[in-house]
């Protein structure tokens, strides 16, 4: 989700469209669509003090944007060159507050938009490259084998040994023993 959002933001910025990009990084509730709880004020969880403040930031930010076209509270437009975004995080203990940051998810963006594109182009070039002809011979020269006799014997010997043991070492009555497996403790029956 975040790669396609960033790509869309970059395309809009290239066309001169004003864009505001934010990211909720509060670790307790920062999953997909969790910000809707803060915007709407309906929570399926007990809010702590940090979350109450984050909710206030969201409501102020969206209300300002609806009224004026700008979210305010230090939230500035995104910049294509610096990849700026508004980091929504609140921590009463450390004093951390929402603020503008740069290099939006840089390691992830680098991987998906540059490294993987380069990898895909390299693989595509290899697949589209010239195909070298392969000469195949359907007949094998005398004295060689595709599947050597030793492999056949290796596979056949355990099967033969099991067959011979079952055939000559077990009496006929022992070969037809069946155990009922229905959960009850029945004696073994000879059929």
UniProtKB/TrEMBL annotation:
Protein's name in the database: Carboxylesterase type B domain-containing protein
Pfam families given in the database record: COesterase (PF00135)
Alphabetized PANTHER family for the sequence: CARBOXYLESTERASE TYPE B DOMAIN-CONTAINING PROTEIN (PTHR45580:SF1), PROTEIN CBG05369 (PTHR45580)
Positions of transmembrane segments: 146-166
Signal peptide per UniProt: none
Lineage per the UniProt record: Eukaryota, Metazoa, Ecdysozoa, Nematoda, Chromadorea
Carboxylesterase type B domain location: 9-95
UniProt KW keywords: Membrane, Transmembrane, Transmembrane helix
InterPro entries: AB_hydrolase_fold (IPR029058), CarbesteraseB (IPR002018)
Organism superkingdom: Eukaryota
């Amino acid at each position: 989700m975040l790669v396609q959002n960033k790509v869309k933001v970059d395309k809009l910025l290239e066309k001169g469209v004003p864009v505001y990009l934010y990211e909720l990084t509060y670790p307790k509730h920062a999953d997909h669509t969790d910000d809707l709880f803060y915007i709407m004020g309906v929570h399926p969880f007990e809010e702590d003090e940090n979350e109450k403040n984050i909710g206030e930031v969201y409501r102020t930010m969206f209300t300002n944007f609806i009224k004026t076209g700008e979210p305010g509270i230090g939230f500035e437009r995104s910049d294509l060159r610096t990849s700026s975004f508004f980091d929504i995080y609140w921590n009463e203990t450390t004093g951390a507050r929402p603020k503008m940051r740069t290099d939006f998810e840089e390691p992830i963006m680098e991987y998906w938009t540059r490294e993987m594109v380069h990898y895909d182009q390299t693989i595509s070039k290899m697949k589209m490259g010239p195909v070298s002809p392969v000469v195949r011979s359907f007949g094998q020269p005398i004295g060689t084998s595709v599947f050597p006799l030793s492999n056949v014997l290796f596979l056949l010997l355990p099967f033969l040994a099991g067959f011979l043991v079952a055939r000559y070492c077990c009496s006929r009555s022992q070969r037809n023993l069946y155990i009922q497996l229905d959960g009850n403790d029945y004696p073994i029956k000879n059929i």
